[in-house]
């Protein structure tokens, strides 16, 4: 690797001492003198870390004046608009379907560059069976993984491992197949960021490839996660982009509930965890989703306790928030014996950057207090009698206004009063005496 020049340039073999020089954002590749640059370093040139950067010219990246117009990014593999013309006779997809190694190795780099540089013109529906042509080499790669997985299963199942190793050959994947499968997945990954492309990818043919890949044994998938992180990251990115258009069939739900959580627990790759967590957050609330593994929530709490960097910490907290909103997983979180230990980490995170706030809530009318008078008390009896007399007077007055006769019951005998009551009444002045009477 040499120091990047200040401007984008292509130096002829005579001027560069017999070497071709090409520059890309944050990447500088030197190729030996050939008729065309070799494709062995293609994935290094167009690796995801580069593709995730915005397209910018070298002059801008080296501090060009803001008023100067940006130059287009130079790449020897960027296809022209004519090479991306729609129709069944597109030369790139015809070369890809031909199966000729030289033709395939010529077409795939241009499709990779075109799917990123000119995404607005890269529409998979304009080419017949474009997804099927691009998934051919990933299917061959999955075929090799199935063979390797079967060989490992035979070796582990026999009582004599040495004898098994003698009878089963050492299967190795073809490097050319791996390279072409990586480039094909990279094309699908870049294209899946387009709305129509993601709808087209989300079809039965590509879902069959996903079913075959995630149907491999979980222990073997963990090894694939470590051995082929680029391919697995492309597959997870494609899966994340097609989620809004994915029908939650039972095989798909099985992948979300049983396979991806196990990969999340077993993986120690931070970048892979950041790809798995958004899928888990999105699919955790799907209806009819099988129960997630029991060790998933303790593992998420353990990752939070390690205090990772901000992007990963945000995803972990979002995942715990999503799971805690579901009754089954909220009970599992609260019943965890290690919850108190993890709270010591969660509380400082909640307090970080927080400002004091006094929350005020209006009490519910159901919780407001009321004073109820005892109806059997003397005051209650007197109030009830007063209300009855008032109602009777109002009714009598209404009859008199209408000219009707009012009949009132009067006693014909003097009430019997005790001497104590008589003495108290006689001592009262009017009108208190009448009111008390």
Descriptive notes:
- 56% of the residues lie in helices and 3% in strands.
- With 437 residues, the chain is an all-alpha fold.
- It has a two-stranded antiparallel sheet with strand order 1-2.
- A hairpin with a 2-residue loop joins strand 1 (19-24) and strand 2 (27-32).
- The N and C termini lie far apart (115 Å).
- Residues 1-72 and 159-168 have low confidence and may be disordered.
- Give a short account of the largest sheet: 2 strands, antiparallel
Outline type:
elongated
Count every beta strand, where a strand is a DSSP E run of 2 or more residues.
2
Relative helix content: 55-70%
Strand content: under 5%
Which structural class matches the secondary elements?
Answer: mainly alpha
Mean pLDDT: 77
* Tally of individual helices: 22
Ranges where pLDDT stays below 50 over 5 or more residues in a row are 1-72, 159-168
